[in-house]
Structures are given as structure tokens and as C-alpha cells.
Write a structure and sequence with these properties.
The complex is a heterodimer. By secondary structure, chain A is mostly beta strands. Chain A is built from no helices and eleven strands. Chain B is built from no helices and eleven strands. Classes of the chains: A mainly beta, B mainly beta.
Amino acid sequence: GQQVMQIPQYQHVQEGEDFTTYCNSSTTLSNIQWYKQRPGGHPVFLIQLVKSGEVKKQKRLTFQFGEAKKNSSLHITATQTTDVGTYFCIRAGNNRKLIWGLGTSLAVNP
Amino acid sequence: EAQVTQNPRYLITVTGKKLTVTCSQNMNHEYMSWYRQDPGLGLRQIYYSMNVEVTDKGDVPEGYKVSRKEKRNFPLILESPSPNQTSLYFCASSLRASFNNEQFFGPGTRLTVL
């Protein structure tokens, strides 16, 4: 129902390669947020997407919200070792609850 | 400096011994929340609070209590901890209760219940 599915669960890339993680929902989302958690750290807010088809960029990171507002993606161009961590998407649930995807863990080989 | 603080950062305790994990924010945020993070299960919301004296259950509230007597503090209470509550706990806050606000997280509390 309200869950968000994130794929892949893990991704191992060579430094300089691109990386993409996807967040999918069976129901329409009002908006979606992305967070990054470094190993041993706490989640840190990256971005929020609200509009259908929205695309936002932060340096090498590109975030997209699907036209139907049921999926979202995060793409990193030319990964660096500083990109290592777990990337989470979250959605709003009923009654102000927040529902997190299980995350995509990214490892980068130097 | 705007921040969310949690104490203690690490705690090893025994089954049944009541404990409290404190959480405090200095940003005058209305919304505060507790999560637990377990391998393979991601972050799961335990309790949240939309403002002073307003708290509500998240997805995994069993075995936990919270209170929100002041805006800045949101302690998590384990009345009778059990080994299945061994986890990494995060407190978070945001300006408002709506989903349009960024959440700020504390550094985490690693709890082990023997």
C-alpha cells in the first residue's frame, strides 16, 4: 500500500562510473524526499521533489520525479569516493507518518 | 549552532532495566520523531510529535514511550528493555509537521540490551 520500493539494494561501482537508484510506489505520491547516510553517520537531507516530471540538479546529482508521481530516481554522474553511503527515499504516510524506503547502499572502488 | 543532540551515544544495558534516551533540538522545531535503524529493515518510525503535548505512534511503537512536555525535548523511554530493542536509534526534528520540511537528525544512539 504505502511502502516505497528502492532498487537496487546494493551497488558497487568503479570511481568515475555513473550510478542510479530508483524509488517506486504503487500509489501516487504528493512529494518525495531523498536523504543520504554516510557509513557510521546519520541521514542528511538532500532534496525534495513535488511537481510531476520535476528534475533537480545538485552538482553531479540529478533527481527526477516521474510524470505519474509514482516513482523517482537519483542519478550520480562520475561517482567519487565521497559518494559512498546509503541513499534513502521517503514518502509521507497517513497521519503525518513518514515511510522510508530500505535504501540503496553505494560502494565506490577508487 | 543549529543541531539535534542525543544522549547517550552508546549504551549497554540489561533486560528489564528502565532507560531513557534524551533528544533535544535548538531550532524551535514543531515536529520531532524517533526512529530505529536495523540492518535490512531501514529506518522505522517509532513515535512522532507534531507539537508540545501531541504525540502519536509510528510503525513500531511497542515497548517504547515518549513525552513532549517542552518544544525542544523529546525523550524516548524504554520501561523494560528487551534484547529485540537492540538497535541504532535516531531522533529527528523538522520545522513543521507537514512533509514539506527537511528533517534534521541527531547523531544516533547505539543501544545494546543483553
